[in-house]
What we know:
alpha/beta; Rossmann fold; six-stranded parallel sheet; 19 strands; about 40% helix; globular
Amino acid sequence: MIYPKIPLAQTVIQLCKAQHIKHIIISPGSRSAPLTIGFTNDDFFTCYSIVDERCAAFFAMGIAQQLKAPTALVCTSGSALLNYYPAVAEAFYSDIPLVVLSADRPKHLIGIGDGQTINQKNVYENHILYAANLKLDIKDEKHIPSDNELPILKNLENKLERFLGLQKDIQEYNEQEINMALNVAALKQGPVHINIPFDEPLYETVDALSVTPKHREIKYHKNTIEAHELKACVDDWSAASKKLILVGVNHPNEIDAKWFEELAHDDSVIVFTETTSNLHHKSFFPSIDQIIAPLTEEELKGLQPDILLTFGGLVVSKKIKALLRKFKPKAHWHIDEKKANDTFFSLTKHIEVTPQAFFESFLPKLTHYKKSDFRTFWQKIKKHRLQKHEQYINDIPFSDFKAFAGVVEAIPNHTILQVGNSSAIRYTQLFDINKTVEIYCNRGTSGIDGSTSTAIGCASINTKATTFITGDLSFFYDSNALWNNYIPNSFRIIIINNEGGGIFRILPGHKNTENFDTYFETRHNLTAQHLCDMFNFDYVSVSDNEALKLALLEFYNPSDKPKILEVFTPPKRNDEILLEYFNYIK
């Protein structure tokens, strides 16, 4: 086997292997050559070459999202690792394990005007779980520290002994730091950064390893809920007549369905789920804004819970945030092993276990349910809303709303749906999607920047087919995502193209002015057709409802290329149709 000659590169690669980090996404560069040589010459690793570092990082995040295991990124020095930052921030807030392996210049070449050099140490400081800043190997006498650091050594024997001792200390330090970073990524599920200085020559190889680093695994201590805390929860829950459970981003199949049945027996409990929660039950309320947007102030107050119980990641609905911030619950419990956001400024309890562990400990101890008409009342509202929802879709002209209705209904069973941010996820939230479909969206930072790349990373690792629904600005912003050799033929992209940032028309502001069109909505006349020609996608476009129906009949048929369906909607009617929806369903 071929190995890089540099011991530090060998150490990083072997410890990644020991930690079972199999997927390595590499962007081209010279300073990172020792890592690239090592990873690509070891059959254990599956290596990907993606030029654009921002796309590479979101692609890696899509893989890690699906595997729930660390995926590694390799880049050269300089601005390369700054292009990872949007994905690092998203991974930080979405609890996705990314390992950034950035090559760096030696310390003595930093800050002197050397090319492709920046201050890389702790560059992700505010959005990282651990930063390991490794030390340069000592490869010969000229690397022995200066007189300011060490006393002058009198003879070669002493010099060699000191040299070997220093290299041993450096090796032990580097092993410890690498092990810590990789363990934190795996156990705490988040991004870590390992900064790796390499001196030239960079491309030398050997056929045998010169170091055998030790893998130090951290033992995972599973959190459990204390008996006294559990009893307090049971007592408070049993006494409350209005309980609201709100679920944010949640991986599919993480909670046993039997606990949903238990919750359904309690009429004092309402469960609000978001599209990204991947939870389904006939008694749940899956379209939050559909329920609460048309409510009067007095009706909103009627939803104020005695106890709010939350779990999962960040919540999309601004309306539920506004409601719960104004009409605060008497108590807010959040269930999560890692963190608890005080989103509604009323957090009273952080229960540091998984939702599954909490429900299996908590629900069997409930011996009675508080008599209440809380859910019964809101179920009647839900039934009315759904009836009006169907009527409205039938009545409205072709628009974003009508397009989403058709697109969402056509998603095949037992597939994966990735959704872009901004208006795409908000429209999707208004529909009750097939419960066999797994749904994901980058809601950590809610940016439009890497949704396409994330979806492609997800598709590359999955046996299930993936559909990505996105708006036009998000798609064009991340169009380099298509510069990728790992896209399966089953991958499908649906672009809702309303010629700009249509979501800004829904927000307060002066519309139909030159300032608004240019700087907020950012109007354009772009189409994905030429990108499809360049990147070898099948392409079809539609601009009315009948054409959309016909296109969807063929869109998911097997093909020898991935496909893009671009849906053109009238840009100046979508905001009126969406806002009128909430009046209509009241």
